[in-house]
């Protein structure tokens, strides 16, 4: 049986299941309790599980993550919320110098099963510091897993897998997709957390994306089909580690690749994908790997964000350029 629910509701149900299944799971963050989070992702959880399991914290991101590290050292599995993407940077020191390195520093004796939830990306008309895409900063750090679901089903299952992981997971939630609904089979057997998925078969070119851009790539594939172009859409799901085998398999079939993400193209995750796939698929590629993303500039005011973010026309232009080779 599958239930239809919004992506935000799927995360809520996943957190509820984790709280019910394991008394060591805790939820912490600013306004996650009585308010239920600014996006209502944790709505009702404090009411049902109490203030000792769903904890409203001070406005102190470094303290939130630092406390979660201490709790994880004592055997708990904290799930912390960073209220908005741009607020994570006060906690960046704790995440990079402590959370990511403790396992290696202890020669494998210490595990830190902490999930850091971060609503990220644009598309909601927010003010400054509320629409960042900092995933590459965390993917660059050894010791962290970095994932981002694009749909309700993945949101439900990937959160379960992240909480069960003994390694720290940075869980990027595409806030513009919080209200998109999809089928969620809560009794299914999920695939591996870091495995990419082909969400649309194609033969002429591969579009690779994750999080908020997967839906856009599906719309691009629909538009291209009207012109007789058959595009494959690959949902990467994980930014670190990256499933290069699935990307390679798709590119060996289509011989062309366009990578799409909201984060700036400069030093973005698409650059690593382009470099690695060029190495792996040099004799299969019929065009260079192209990237579509944000510009190397501070995120603009809300009135300009549609000019900054990848859109249908910009991705279609990259498709046309690739197919023109």
Keywords:
7-stranded mixed sheet; 14 strands; 12 helices; single chain; 5-stranded mixed sheet; alpha/beta; 325 residues
In terms of topology, how is this protein built?
Blueprint: E1 3-6, H1 7-21, E2 25-29, H2 45-49, E3 54-56, H3 61-73, E4 77-81, H4 92-99, H5 102-105, E5 115-120, H6 135-139, E6 145-147, H7 152-164, E7 169-174, E8 181-184, E9 197-200, E10 205-209, H8 213-225, E11 231-235, E12 238-240, H9 244-254, E13 257-264, H10 269-280, E14 290-294, H11 305-308, H12 312-323
Structural overview:
The protein has 325 residues and is an alpha/beta fold. The longest helix is centred in the first third of the chain and has 15 residues, at 7-21. α3 runs parallel beside α4 (92-99). It has 12 helices and 14 strands. It has helices spanning 7-21, 45-49, 61-73, 92-99, 102-105, 135-139, 152-164, 213-225, 244-254, 269-280, 305-308, 312-323, and strands at residues 3-6, 25-29, 54-56, 77-81, 115-120, 145-147, 169-174, 181-184, 197-200, 205-209, 231-235, 238-240, 257-264, 290-294. The chain is globular and about 60 Å long. Helices cover 35% and strands 20% of the residues. It starts with a strand and ends with a helix. Strands 3-2-4-5-7-6-12 form a 7-stranded mixed beta sheet, with helices on both faces. A 5-stranded mixed beta sheet has the order 9-11-10-13-14, sandwiched between helices. Residues 5-180 form the Transketolase-like pyrimidine-binding domain. It is an enzyme of class 1 (oxidoreductase). It comes from Streptomyces tibetensis.
């Amino acid at each position: 049986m599958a239930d239809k629910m919004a992506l935000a509701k799927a995360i809520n149900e996943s957190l509820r299941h984790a709280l019910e299944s394991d008394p060591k799971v805790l939820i912490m963050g600013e306004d996650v309790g009585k308010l239920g989070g600014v996006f209502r992702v944790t709505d009702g959880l404090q009411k049902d599980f109490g203030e000792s399991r769903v904890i409203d914290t001070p406005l102190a991101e470094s303290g939130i993550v630092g406390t979660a590290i201490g709790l994880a050292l004592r055997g708990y599995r904290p799930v912390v919320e960073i209220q908005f993407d741009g607020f994570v940077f006060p906690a960046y020191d704790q995440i990079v110098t402590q959370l990511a390195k403790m396992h290696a520093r202890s020669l494998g004796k210490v595990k830190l099963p902490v999930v850091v939830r971060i609503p990220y990306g644009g598309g909601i008309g927010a003010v400054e510091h509320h629409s960042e895409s900092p995933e590459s900063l965390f993917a660059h750090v050894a010791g962290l897993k970095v994932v981002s679901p694009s749909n309700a089903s993945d949101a439900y299952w990937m959160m379960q897998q992240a909480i069960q992981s003994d390694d720290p997971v940075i869980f990027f939630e595409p806030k513009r997709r919080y209200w998109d609904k999809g089928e969620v089979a809560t009794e299914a057997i999920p695939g591996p957390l870091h495995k990419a998925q082909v969400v649309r078969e194609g033969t002429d070119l591969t579009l690779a994306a994750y999080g908020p851009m997967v839906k856009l790539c599906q719309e691009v594939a629909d538009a291209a089909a009207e012109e007789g172009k058959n595009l494959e859409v690959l949902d990467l799901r994980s930014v670190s580690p990256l499933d290069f085998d699935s990307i390679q398999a798709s590119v060996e079939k289509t011989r062309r690749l366009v990578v799409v993400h909201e984060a700036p193209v400069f030093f973005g995750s698409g650059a690593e994908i382009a470099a690695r796939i060029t190495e792996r698929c040099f004799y299969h590629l019929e065009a260079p790997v192209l990237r579509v993303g944000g510009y190397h500039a501070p995120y603009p005011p809300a009135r300009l964000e549609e000019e900054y973010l990848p859109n249908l026309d910009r991705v279609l232009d990259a498709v046309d350029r690739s197919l023109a080779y």
